[in-house]
Design goal:
The complex is a heterotetramer, with 2 copies of chain A (81 residues), 1 copy of chain B (738 residues) and 1 copy of chain C (226 residues). By secondary structure, chain B is an alpha+beta fold. Chain B contains 26 helices and 28 strands. Chain C has a 9-stranded mixed beta sheet with strand order 2-1-3-4-11-10-9-6-7, sandwiched between helices. In chain C, strands 5-8 form a two-stranded antiparallel ribbon. The structure holds adenosine-5'-diphosphate (ADP) and magnesium ion.
């Protein structure tokens, strides 16, 4: 079982990396690009959990470790492989 | 797992082995090698590991001296600092990987040189780097610079060793091959040096550090070839990625281990990883070694014995422990969260043997891989166009009309502009020993254990070397020594990184041999020894070789670190004096290249006796605290040296008013790069003492003028605001790197 | 006075902080191992700079869970003086002992340079020897030193006099140009309501010897024991 | 229109961050956690493109800038908002 975790900078928090990427894309003549936000993408392999247990454990991992509640939001999905 | 391909001459060629070399292998073994053995020979006999094209000529270099505890041949050279302390240092190239992947290439270069140092029992205390990029406006340059600098910082800052200096040059000759040379110096107790020896039959061989993956396996082309194409994309060799965190704890764990009497030898796994580390240890210990590859900790499934032998995964060390000390060794690494696994033992059969699934897949006499490896005395021939490139007719160049304009152009050219954009991305302070941070002629660190200090400088002017490799290399040696001498550090020994093109080309080989002779003669004149180094050949793209680049990393000692001197003017009213003489020399100068777009002529002449005299005077003056500032004259000549003395103070600019005598062409007077010159400033009350020193020694010198005001004025030539010149000089590099 | 400096795997300036306290300032200083819980009776704690756990995931995020941090939190809550320098500041924020967070520098690159910081309050355990408004020259060296917090937090920091240091220019003004990393309101350091826990990005332990560029950093330590 | 871009370290490439995160999760008694890989997650706002154009432009952005072809794989999806 695999947890796909998406951690993104809170809207209120400035995201210099996203800004820099947007600028570079414009410099490369991708005029269609608007705002860019850059976050983290984690793949966490899980074993021996029910789907429901996984949901609850990963939620906890995110709150305790994977995301910083001051600066980041998170969401995740559990996929069977 | 895919079956090994059949071993034949073709496969040997795919491994970069020549027909003769393959025949020599078959002859040595009395049979054709296994697939694994072929891999082992190909890496051990590669130019990188065997120095087959350079070894013969490297013997010319002076490598001994009263203070030299260890010359070339070990992981790094060692200099005696007195008081029971020793300096362990080396410079190494990571050019090719850095061009493919600048961040990780440069980062793993830093990681590799650090391991060479702490594997000898020294705590790394200072790193420097020498960088060469293509023309600053070349499409790839900006990204390469950003990647390399971020990689050096990303690894060095995190691992906790300060980066205290270096150099950066831009030249279209490096458009297709950048150079990343990394230097590290460590401090050890002179009686606690560890060497890479495998001795004591039956002693366990222990693998520590990161697990092994398929990183940077040399047979890349091979793995992608026909026999293997059913293997998926992931199984292809991967670029090495460094893990500075693991290196950080590996350093602490190894240094802690060395406090106890548990090990016989230790060696980092660098190029050709497990193979070269175990073979070299066996060789130095005149022993044999047997490894059970099944026991090597791995990162991925399905790794083959071939891959285990050739993988260049980072942050790994090989240790020969005293029999019975296994558990004690493991305990130390466990404390630091690292793995330590016994994977083999020392034998007395003089063979390198490896076992896989109970089968012997490698059985090679160790000397066949080391002392009996091929050595070539390749043909050397002066490039046919050299004489013509050395021509220079100054009358063809009109004198500039506005020298202030020329000066600001020169201080904003990337090779002279401030490198602050680079070094502010490096932690130059961690460790708490940095007395002179990047920004002066030499970096100075203090020794906590004593009053002494160490000075370090890396230098090479490759334009000089392109136009005269002999003189260019000699100048690289004396310039880095001069950078130390003007800072108060007595030069003692150096490490060299010889970056050249394809040695199979006679012109490249000629450049190489000339450079070696230049280094030798300069070392002998200044009584310096070469204690370590590295050769990087094949820096060549589409048949175009880089300019010869023998980078010199010089180390010097201050008996009293408080006697150090920095390059910028300190107080209004100080007297400015030029030590040395100016001749009409514009050949190979930055001025010709930037202002007249000509890279021709011969580099300035070098009088080694005069140079030695100059450096001794500077050292004595520093000891007697006579200098307020001292700065050697290099790229851009006297005018730029004066400007740098005015504007390189980290906090502010300070003006000066000088007049230059001499009936030379004004541009040669201002921007010529005559050697053996230093610009110093002296407080008026100390000037008599300095003057007496100079006169008694008969060193030519000229009083140029006085420090003060807000402008740099060179009477009759230029007058320019020091503050604005400083701003241009500081901003130039960052601006051009967009 | 007995100081404890915590060594996390990847800490770098722990030995420098030790040398500063023991050799330069003549204090008794011990290195505390991150796996231990015993504080060995120290009277003040320094969480040093460096890259604990490689700064992986987020600076300070992984170190915060080291066993020793339980004891450090108890020590801090009992009013014991705790100084977090750079990575130590990041760890204090991650562990909730200090409000806010530290994110990537606005420039996106690591910055090592001497900066000027202004002392905004002298009521903390680590600034009592300073005078309000005094400017100190102390080096920074970090890639993730941009202090951020939501508006309410910043408001309460201001109301409760919890902003300890601001980046300023040579005239002592907290202007934009003097802000090296994009930190909110030029904030270089903050404290908890009690004033016994202080975190800052600059490295006072690297500014205690004239030979190495300056001594302004001494005051943060002498504040505690003089 | 929004492009969600997922950049992950190539399988054979060492991922020190993922490794360290996995160890910490174990230390926090999440024994169910196996391998962890850490990558980037980008949200790129796009305007004035057809879905098909977007597909092709974003593919190009990934190859040229957003992913490092030597060390990273990427995948993306285009979503209308
Ligand atoms: N790559 C680098 N890393 C760190 N410091 C550097 C680097 N390049 C240049 N510097 C520093 O910038 C200053 C000027 O460099 P350079 O002009 O090469 O000095 P010099 O000409 O005296 O050898 C020196 O203090 C040097 O250490
Ligand atoms: Mg110089």
């Amino acid at each position: 079982m695999l947890a796909k975790v998406y951690v993104t900078p809170k809207k209120a928090i400035l995201d210099p990396q996203g800004k820099a990427i947007a600028l570079s894309l414009h410099a490369l003549a991708y005029a269609e690009v608007g705002e860019v936000r850059m976050g983290k993408y984690l793949e966490v392999q899980l074993t021996g959990l029910s789907h429901q247990q996984a949901e609850q454990r990963v939620e906890e991992m995110c709150q305790r470790l994977l995301a910083n509640s001051v600066t980041e939001d998170f969401r995740f999905e559990i996929v069977e492989e | 797992m895919a079956p090994s391909p059949p071993v034949d001459l073709q496969l040997a060629h795919d491994h970069g082995l020549s027909t003769d070399e393959y025949n020599q292998i078959v002859q040595t073994l009395g049979r054709s090698p296994t697939f694994e053995e072929l891999g082992v020979f190909s890496v051990m006999w590669s130019e990188h590991c065997s120095y087959k094209s350079s070894r013969h000529f490297l013997r010319r270099l002076p490598t001994t001296g009263p203070a030299i505890l260890q010359g070339p041949g070990e992981n790094a050279g060692i200099v005696d600092l007195g008081e029971g302390l020793a300096a362990v240092f080396k410079i190494e190239s990571h050019n090719h990987p850095s061009f493919i992947e600048p961040y990780h290439g440069a980062a793993t270069g830093v990681g590799g040189i650090l391991r060479d140092i702490f594997t000898m029992g020294a705590r790394p205390v200072a790193s420097l780097n020498s960088l060469r990029f293509g023309a600053i406006d070349h499409p790839r340059t900006s990204q390469l610079v950003k990647g390399v600098v971020a990689g050096i910082g990303g690894y060095g800052n995190s691992v906790g060793v300060p980066t205290v200096g270096g150099e950066v040059y831009f030249d279209s000759g490096y458009n297709g091959n950048i150079l990343v040379n990394a230097f590290t110096l460590g401090i050890a107790r002179a009686d606690r040096i560890f060497r890479a020896r495998a001795a004591g039959v039956g002693n366990p061989v222990i693998y520590v550090g990161s697990r092994t993956g398929r990183d940077g396996i040399h047979g890349a082309s091979l793995l992608a070839s026909r026999e293997f194409d059913e293997r998926s994309e992931e199984l292809r060799p991967a670029v090495q990625v460094g893990d500075p965190f693991t290196e950080n704890v590996l350093i602490e764990a190894c240094l802690e281990l060395m406090q106890h009497d548990l090990i016989v030898g230790i060696q980092d796994m660098g190029a050709a990883g497990l193979t070269s580390s175990s073979v070299e240890m066996a060789d130095r210990g005149e022993a044999g070694i047997v490894l059970t590859l099944d026991d090597v900790p791995t990162r991925e499934e399905e790794i083959t014995p071939y891959e285990l032998l050739l993988s260049e995964s980072q942050e790994r060390m090989l240790i020969v422990a005293k029999d019975g000390c296994e558990e004690a060794v493991k305990a130390v690494f466990d404390k630091w969260g690292l793995q330590a696994v016994v994977i083999g033992e020392v034998t007395d059969d003089g063979l390198f043997r490896t076992i896989w699934h109970g089968e012997e897949v490698v059985r090679i006499p160790v000397p066949a891989l080391t002392s009996e490896a091929p050595v070539y005395e390749r043909r050397a021939e002066q490039p046919s166009d050299l004489v013509q490139r050395q021509q220079l007719d100054l009358t063809a160049f009109p004198l500039p009309t506005d020298y202030a304009e020329v000066l600001s152009t020169l201080v904003t050219t990337p090779n002279i502009a401030s490198k602050e954009w680079v070094y502010r991305q490096y932690d130059s302070l961690v460790g708490g020993n940095t007395v002179v941070q990047p920004g002066s002629d030499a970096a100075i660190i203090r020794l906590k254990e004593s009053n002494k200090g160490i000075g370090i400088s890396v230098d090479c002017n490759s334009r000089y070397c392109a136009l005269d490799p002999y003189r260019g290399a000699a100048i690289a040696v004396v310039e880095s020594a001069r950078n130390l001498a003007v800072s108060g550090a007595k030069p003692v020994a150096l490490s060299d990184c010889l970056n050249f093109g394809n040695p199979e080309k006679p012109e490249v080989m000629w450049q190489f041999t000339q450079a070696i002779d230049g280094i030798r003669d300069a070392c002998e004149a200044l009584e310096l020894a070469v204690v370590s180094g590295n050769v990087s050949f094949y820096n060549e793209t589409d048949g175009r070789a880089i300019p010869p680049t023998p980078t010199i990393a010089m180390v010097g000692i201050l008996e009293d670190v408080t006697q150090h001197v920095t390059q910028w003017f300190k107080h209004t009213g100080d007297i400015i004096v030029l030590l040395g003489e100016t001749h009409e020399e514009l050949g190979a100068s930055e001025y010709l290249a930037v202002i007249h777009e000509q890279e021709c002529g011969v580099p300035p002449m070098l009088d080694l006796e005069r140079e030695k005299q100059l450096q001794q005077i500077c050292l004595q003056a520093c000891r007697e605290r006579l200098f307020s500032s001292a700065h050697d004259v290099a790229e851009g000549g006297l005018a730029v040296a004066l400007a740098e003395s005015c504007i390189t103070n980290p906090h502010s600019a300070l003006g000066a008013r000088v007049s230059l005598q001499g009936d030379l062409r004004p541009d040669a007077l201002l921007f010529g790069e005559s050697q053996s010159r230093v610009v110093v400033s002296v407080q008026p009350d100390r000037w008599p003492q300095l003057q007496e020193l100079l006169q008694s020694d008969g060193l030519p010198h000229t009083v140029l003028g006085e420090v003060g005001g807000t402008e740099l004025e060179i009477l009759g030539h230029l007058k320019i605001s020091a503050a604005s010149l400083r701003n241009q000089w500081r901003a130039a590099l960052g601006r051009q790197l967009t | 006075m007995k100081w404890g400096i915590v060594t996390f795997p990847g800490s770098n300036d722990d030995r420098d902080a030790w040398y500063c306290l023991e050799a330069v300032l003549g204090q008794e200083a011990v290195l505390l191992w991150h796996k231990d819980q015993d504080l060995q009776g120290v009277e003040a704690i320094v969480l040093p700079g460096g890259f604990s756990y490689g700064d992986y995931l987020r600076a300070g995020a992984l170190a915060r869970f080291s066993p020793i941090m339980h004891s450090v939190v108890d020590f801090a809550n009992a009013g014991g003086p705790v100084l977090g320098v750079c990575n130590g500041f990041q760890i204090l924020c991650e562990s909730g002992l200090l409000p806010g967070a530290l994110v990537r520098n606005r420039s996106l690159s690591f910055i090592c340079e001497w900066v000027s910081i202004r002392v905004e309050t002298t009521r903390t355990r680590f600034t009592s020897a300073c005078s309000a408004g005094e400017c100190l020259s102390i080096p920074i060296k970090h890639g993730e030193g941009c202090y951020v917090a939501d508006t309410d937090t910043v408001q309460s920091l201001t109301d409760n006099d919890q902003i300890v240091f601001r980046y300023v220019n040579e005239t002592g003004a907290a202007e934009r140009a003097a802000n090296p990393n994009g930190a909110l309101h030029n904030i270089a350091g903050v404290t908890n309501p009690n004033g016994n826990v202080v975190g800052l990005m600059p490295h006072p332990e690297h500014a205690v010897e004239a030979l190495l560029g300056g001594e302004d950093g001494r005051k943060l330590f002498t504040s505690v024991f003089i």
